[in-house]
Write a structure and sequence with these properties.
The longest helix is centred in the first third of the chain and has 18 residues, at 2-19. The strands form five sheets. A seven-stranded mixed sheet has the order 12-11-10-4-3-17-18. A four-stranded antiparallel sheet has the order 8-6-13-14, with no helix packed on it. Strands 7-15-16 form a three-stranded antiparallel sheet, with no helix packed on it. The N and C termini lie far apart (138 Å). Strand 10 (241-245), helix 2 and strand 11 (263-264) form a beta-alpha-beta unit. Helix content is 7%, strand content 16%. The chain has two domains: 72-160, no CATH class; 161-410, Immunoglobulin-like, CATH 2.60.40.1260. It is built from three helices and 18 strands. It is mainly β and 435 residues long.
């Protein structure tokens, strides 16, 4: 308060000095404004802290002061896929025993296989121990299909036979009829004295007569029957096949069968009526020289039932020797099974020679009749359980005792639309397909 009063007095005095007359007798020194703060003494804007006195953005930690992405562990600091054990660190399929490490069927001894040779007639496994069991020639029939073929349709024992075999027969279409023979041995075979026939009394048409006991009579050789001899000098190489066409139009035959035949039936007058076409290497079969022509004018195979016999005779031996025999269908009086049990051959020098007993017709096995365009094929080249002693065949075999129902098979597929043989039906001139 006192301070304020003094200021008021001073202010009044100043007013008086400026506006009124000067007091007499007394001189006052006029105070200068230096006692009072001048505007220059008052703080101005420059006295007030400015923005530069306030910490600026540079005083505040900026983004560079804050740890940046490089300060934060990045993906390279985090274990990556290469740090994690990968598939190559985990045992792979090659580390796990594979199928080749597991014994397969061929590694497992089967009941009847004892090495490269079959010891019995049945394989429990899918394959034989050996492809060809030449030592014993006892086929091992696979349980998949009852044939000795490793379940692949191709017979194994094609090299096991000891003599010529009939291996395939096709009964139709007519111009495609043929019989295939095979040499399963390791040596060439001379065919000059080998015969092929579709007649049950074939032995009686070799230029000599026959007699029978038990009241049987000689059957007549019909126009469709044949007892034919292979050409002079003909041979069959080891392992080879030969195809005999039963008709004379060879271009038509080759169009159906897909091959030219090696031989053909010439009919009653030899080559008359035969057309070779491109099959110029084919040779005609010969008649036997019997009083009755032994190649009928319409020789061929009967579809429903027929025997086919392969045999040999040198012209001087007392009796012909059977090589192979197959029968299909139901027997009839004109197409009967072979049974020479009561048959004797009249010898040129007098007397006779009698055949050993064959298997009785009622006990013989038969192949089912093949359909037109289908084929009857041998699937066991060792002739199965055929009796090998006491017979009329080579080496004492009884060719009529073969279990044809198990050693042969008839294909079921029909002929192609164009009349040709279906691929799986027949393999003329080649190893059989037994599917």
């Amino acid at each position: 308060m006192i301070k304020n009063a003094r200021l008021l007095v001073i202010g009044l005095l100043l007013v008086g000095c400026n506006d009124g007359p000067t007091a007499v007798g007394t001189v006052f020194d006029a105070a200068t404004p230096t006692d009072l703060g001048s505007p220059a003494d008052r703080p101005d804007a420059s006295d007030v802290p400015v923005a530069t006195d306030v910490p600026v953005a540079t005083d505040v930690p900026v983004a560079t002061d804050v740890p940046v992405a490089t300060d934060v562990p990045v993906a390279t600091d985090v274990p990556v896929a290469t740090d994690v054990p990968v598939a190559t660190d985990i045992p792979v399929a090659t580390d796990v025993p594979v199928a080749t490490d597991v014994p397969v069927a061929t590694d497992v001894p089967v009941a009847t296989d004892s090495g490269p040779v079959d010891a019995g007639a049945l394989d429990a496994g899918p394959t034989d121990a050996g492809a060809v069991d030449a030592a014993s020639c006892t086929p091992a029939t696979e349980t998949c299909n009852g044939m000795d073929d490793d379940c692949d349709g191709v017979v194994d024992e094609s090299g096991c036979g000891t003599h010529l075999l009939i291996t395939e027969v096709v009964v139709g279409p007519d111009e495609g009829e043929y019989v295939e023979i095979h040499n399963p041995t390791a040596a060439a075979i001379d065919l000059s004295n080998v015969y092929l026939s579709d007649f049950h009394d074939y032995a009686c048409f070799l230029g000599r007569g026959c007699t029978f006991t038990g009241g049987r009579t000689l059957a007549s050789l019909g126009s469709s029957d044949f007892v034919a001899r292979f050409p002079a000098g003909a041979t069959l190489a080891p392992g080879a096949y030969a195809v005999v066409s039963l008709k004379g139009n060879l271009p038509l035959f080759s169009g159906i069968a897909g091959v030219c035949p090696n031989y053909y039936l010439g009919g009653a007058t030899g080559d008359a009526g035969v057309t070779l076409g491109t099959c110029i290497a084919a040779l005609p079969m010969r008649a036997t020289g019997h009083a009755t022509n032994t190649i009928g004018t319409s020789a061929g195979l009967t579809n429903s039932t027929e025997p086919v016999v392969l045999f040999q005779w040198d012209g001087s031996a007392a009796l012909p020797v059977d090589l192979d025999y197959v029968f299909w269908g139901t027997p009839s009086s004109t197409n009967a099974q072979v049974d020479k049990t009561t048959t004797s051959i009249t010898l040129a020098a007098g007397g006779s020679a009698t055949f050993l007993p064959d298997t009785a017709a009622a006990s013989q096995q038969r192949v089912a009749a093949p359909a037109n365009g289908a084929a009857a094929v041998r699937c066991n080249y060792a002739e199965g359980t055929e009796r090998r002693t006491g017979g009329n065949g080579l080496g004492g075999h009884d060719e009529t005792s073969e279990a044809l129902m198990t050693t042969w098979r008839v294909t079921a597929a029909p002929a192609q639309v164009d009349g040709s043989l279906a691929t799986l039906n027949a393999t003329p001139g080649a190893i059989n397909n037994c599917r």
